[in-house]
């Protein structure tokens, strides 16, 4: 990571250095042009005597000193230029002295003075030296530029490789954290499912899937509280199969189990949404009916439940004959407490057994 940042930092640094070198090369050309402009102004004046050309000379002089100042400032960061610039500065002074002298000589001694011609030769010589120095400086800068370009290419490659590596690392971390999160989520969901299953198993009978004895207690308590506060009635139908032991003994527990499942399914078929059916244990079932108006509805329901087993029940290919004895207790008519009500219903169921089985009986009032 640090390596990538270093490479990127250096990339920016070398790019800036390269731009600086480009500006210096441009200024070196500009310097040469400014001196030449000044020289052509001087020459024009010498040839024509027009003072207009003196303006060109002065403009060239001022451009020259501006560019020289720029180059000096840039040389602060590039020490390599300093000696060359120092020499150029001296030569430029010399050059402008000669230009000025030529003008003075012509003004005082005339155009064809021997001093003037000597001075012209000297001027050309100095200009040649300036050009050579400028060329040398440009060569050095061109070489420096190449070096910077080479460094830039290296840092670009390093940045690209570093970027790709960093990308791979980031993707790897993201994938890893995604995978861990998914695994964690799966574990949480699994734990929740196990907890839900455990809670379902605690409240339900494993064989038939119906609510178990524990649920009967909870449901009856809730129904009782609601009925008490709303002054409504509800009924318990206590149901016990007739002749179940015989089937168990004759065909074995496997058939007995299958029969219990079938019985539960048949009971469900005649129930309404609001009815609550549970397996109390063994071959006993409890039905809580809380949505009825007349006792007659209970007798009709009991008859339908008994009717379910009027024909032999086919289980695992066996025609099994069973019946159901039912005891009915109503709140608040038969009892005003849940426990008593259950007792009344149980007793009524035994009354049905005693009076010949496969029938229903209502409980007797308890006070
Ligand atoms: N297959 C099986 N049998 C069970 C289960 N739970 C209890 N039993 C048996 O169910 C029988 C219930 O006994 P009873 O109610 O006396 O049998 P019954 O033949 O219906 O007798 P009555 O009620 O007098 O008609 C017993 O033999 C228990 O062993 C179970 O989950 N599966």
From TrEMBL:
SUPFAM superfamilies: Nucleotide cyclase (SSF55073). The keyword Oxidoreductase does not apply. InterPro entries: CHASE3, DGC-Regulatory_Protein, GGDEF_dom, Nucleotide_cyclase, Rev_trsase/Diguanyl_cyclase. The chain crosses the membrane at residues 156-178. GO terms for molecular function: catalytic activity. Gene3D superfamilies: 3.30.70.270. Residues 232-365 form the GGDEF domain. Keywords: Membrane, Transmembrane, Transmembrane helix. Pfam families: CHASE3 (PF05227), GGDEF (PF00990). PANTHER family: DIGUANYLATE CYCLASE DGCT-RELATED, GGDEF DOMAIN-CONTAINING PROTEIN. This is Diguanylate cyclase. The lineage of its organism: Bacteria, Pseudomonadati, Pseudomonadota, Betaproteobacteria, Nitrosomonadales.
């Amino acid at each position: 990571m640090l390596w990538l940042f270093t490479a990127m930092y250096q990339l920016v640094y070398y790019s800036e250095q390269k731009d600086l070198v480009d500006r210096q090369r441009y200024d070196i050309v500009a310097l040469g042009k400014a001196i030449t402009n000044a020289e052509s102004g001087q020459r024009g004046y010498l040839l024509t005597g027009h003072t207009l050309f003196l303006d060109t000379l002065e403009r060239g002089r001022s451009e020259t000193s501006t560019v020289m100042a720029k180059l000096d400032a840039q040389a602060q960061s590039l020490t390599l230029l300093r000696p060359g610039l120092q020499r150029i500065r001296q030569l430029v002074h010399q050059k402008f002295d000669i230009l000025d002298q030529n003008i003075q000589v012509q003004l005082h001694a005339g155009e064809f003075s021997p001093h003037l011609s000597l001075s012209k030769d000297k001027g050309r010589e100095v200009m040649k030296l300036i050009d050579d120095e400028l060329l040398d400086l440009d060569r050095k800068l061109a070489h420096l530029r190449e070096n910077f370009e080479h460094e830039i290419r290296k840092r670009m490659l390093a940045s690209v490789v570093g970027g790709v590596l960093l990308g791979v690392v980031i993707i790897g971390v993201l994938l890893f954290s995604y995978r861990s999160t998914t695994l964690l989520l799966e574990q949480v969901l699994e734990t929740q499912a196990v907890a839900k299953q455990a809670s379902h198993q605690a409240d339900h009978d494993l064989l038939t899937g119906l609510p178990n004895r524990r649920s009967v207690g909870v449901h009856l308590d809730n129904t009782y509280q609601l009925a008490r506060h709303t002054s409504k009635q509800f009924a318990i139908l206590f149901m016990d199969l007739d002749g179940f032991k015989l089937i168990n003994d004759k065909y074995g527990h496997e058939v007995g189990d299958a029969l219990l499942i079938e019985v539960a399914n048949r009971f469900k078929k005649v129930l309404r949404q609001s009815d609550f059916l549970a397996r109390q244990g063994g071959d006993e079932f409890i039905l809580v009916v809380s949505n009825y108006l007349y006792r007659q509805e209970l007798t009709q329901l009991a008859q339908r439940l008994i009717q379910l087993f009027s024909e032999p029940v086919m289980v695992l290919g066996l025609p099994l004959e069973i019946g159901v004895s039912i005891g009915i207790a109503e709140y608040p008519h038969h009892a005003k407490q849940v426990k008593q009500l259950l007792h009344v219903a149980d007793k009524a169921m035994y009354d049905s057994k005693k009076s010949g089985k496969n029938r229903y009986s209502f409980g007797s009032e308890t006070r």
